[in-house]
Design a protein that fits this description.
The protein contains 3 helices and 28 strands. It is mainly β and 356 residues long. Strand 23 and strand 24 form a beta hairpin. The protein is globular. Keywords: Developmental protein, Nucleus, Repeat, WD repeat.
Length: 356
């Protein structure tokens, strides 16, 4: 299933309980679609959320009643899912352009900006309750660990940060990597943090030992822009080369390519709430919904000579002993390829914005 968005998308998110998916576009638009198996997604509404500025981040909030969006104009916008009407707008939420949003609890959200600042917003206090100067460059990705009430962030400065909400401080930060960190996920029952990088390597950090990565896994030919945790041992990656891959962690192994979105970079991946579908967006301006079971049942081809060549190359480039398989040609989507340049729970979110 796929739909043309008409502009380059930056982010997407699935509704927590209904078959709805939202996407924010480079032209400032917010699109909401209803989907069902074996039918084309139906657009519920299309609004211009942020004027001439791009809509960089999208998240459902307040049990799916509203959609939060963030923009380079430093604003956060709340849109009603039922009506598409603006519920509230918070101007100057950050001093710099906002890149990322992540849900924390029913009453808390976090945002990250171009200058490395991460903020936590508490709807009960109607204010920003935490602010972390976590990085020296843009915040590329955020994830939340509920058990420890910590936010993990990656940045273009090549660092991984751990921000404690309880202690209101940056509790730990990695040394500067030579590579930009673009994406992250927590795996192995919380023992490992895996970061995708600009060069295509996956950096593995051991929990509690964040100063330097414990392992460096080569295998992606281009940058790893987005990652999803499938289970404790496997992740799904989206790369600059447009390919969606299934990757094993410890042992490190590219198990197989799952699909090719297009020949253009994959901007973001997301699971539907029931995990029946994976959504992908790319610079081809397409939103695609893939049946997860069908993807995982994609037959894997064998090419022993190429596999050995890639393994030998990885041994030359890296000292670890992790196993790695060759990237094989994945099934291509039937979607069109179009290239177009562009510009760069219980508490009410609406009352939170209104009272600021």
């Amino acid at each position: 299933m796929e739909v043309s968005l008409g502009a380059i998308p930056f982010d997407l998110d699935f509704h927590p309980s209904s078959p709805l998916v939202a996407s924010g576009l480079i032209n400032g638009d917010l699109h909401l679609y209803r989907y069902a198996a074996e039918t084309q997604p139906e657009r519920v509404f299309k609004i211009n959320a942020h004027g001439e500025e791009s809509c960089r981040a999208v998240r459902f909030a307040d049990s799916g009643k509203i959609i939060l969006t963030a923009s380079p104009n430093c604003s956060l916008l709340a849109t009603d899912v039922e009506t598409g009407k603006t519920v509230a707008r918070l101007e100057n939420a950050h001093e710099e352009a906002i890149n990322r949003l992540v849900n924390l609890t029913d009453t808390m959200i976090a945002s990250g900006d171009d200058e490395g600042c991460i903020k936590v917003w508490d709807t009960r206090q109607h204010a920003c309750c935490n602010s972390f100067d976590a990085h020296e460059d843009y915040v590329s990705d955020l994830t939340f660990v509920p058990d420890t009430m910590q936010i993990l962030g990656t940045s273009g400065d090549g660092t991984l940060s751990v921000c404690s909400i309880k202690k209101n401080k940056v509790q730990s930060q990695s040394e500067f990597s030579e590579d930009e960190l673009l994406s992250l996920v927590v795996m192995k029952n919380g023992k490992k943090v895996i970061c995708g990088t600009q060069t295509g390597a996956l950096l593995l950090y051991s929990w509690g030992h964040f100063k330097d990565c414990s392992d460096r896994f080569l295998g992606h030919p281009m940058s790893v822009d987005t990652v999803l945790k499938l289970d404790e041992d496997r992740l799904i990656s989206g790369s600059y080369d447009g390919v969606i891959r299934l990757v094993g962690i410890l042992p490190n192994k590219i198990i197989q390519p799952l699909a090719e979105h297009s020949e253009f970079p994959i901007e973001r991946l997301a699971f539907s709430s029931d995990r029946q579908f994976i959504g992908s967006i790319s610079h081809d301006q397409m939103l695609k919904l893939w049946d997860l079971e069908e993807l995982l049942n994609t037959p894997q081809e064998n090419n022993q000579e190429e596999n050995e060549a890639v393994q030998a190359d990885s041994d030359d480039d890296d000292d670890d002993d992790d196993e790695m398989d060759i990237d094989i040609a994945p099934p291509k989507s039937s979607g069109s390829k179009r290239k177009k340049s562009g510009n760069g729970g219980s508490s009410s979110i609406s009352s939170f914005f209104d009272d600021l």
